[in-house]
Design brief:
Blueprint: H1 5-33, H2 39-52, H3 58-61
InterPro entries: DUF2842
Keywords: Membrane, Transmembrane, Transmembrane helix
Protein name: DUF2842 domain-containing protein
């Protein structure tokens, strides 16, 4: 079942405001349990975990910054106000 545009906007906000900080805390906690690995290993783990969270949520965030494609009242053919 595909999510509507409004549902994706709501979920993306929840994920960014609540989920991502919880994920960061969980990653730091796990890294602290592992002890202090060499700095390069630690950097690679943090970079990997920093990218890992986005892959399963890619479809939620895709197109969120665009205008609502289902909104017929949205006039997308207006002239550019800067010109």
């Amino acid at each position: 079942m595909a999510l509507s545009y409004k549902a994706r906007r709501r979920w993306s906000l929840i994920i960014l405001v609540i989920g991502l900080p919880l994920y960061i805390v969980a990653c730091v906690t796990v890294m602290n349990w592992l002890g202090r690995p060499p700095i390069l290993v630690e950097l690679l783990v943090y970079v990997g975990l920093g990218v890992l969270w986005a892959f399963p949520l890619k479809m939620v965030f895709m197109g969120i910054g665009q205008a609502d494609p289902d909104d017929p009242a949205e006039d997308t053919t207006r002239d550019d106000p800067r010109s």
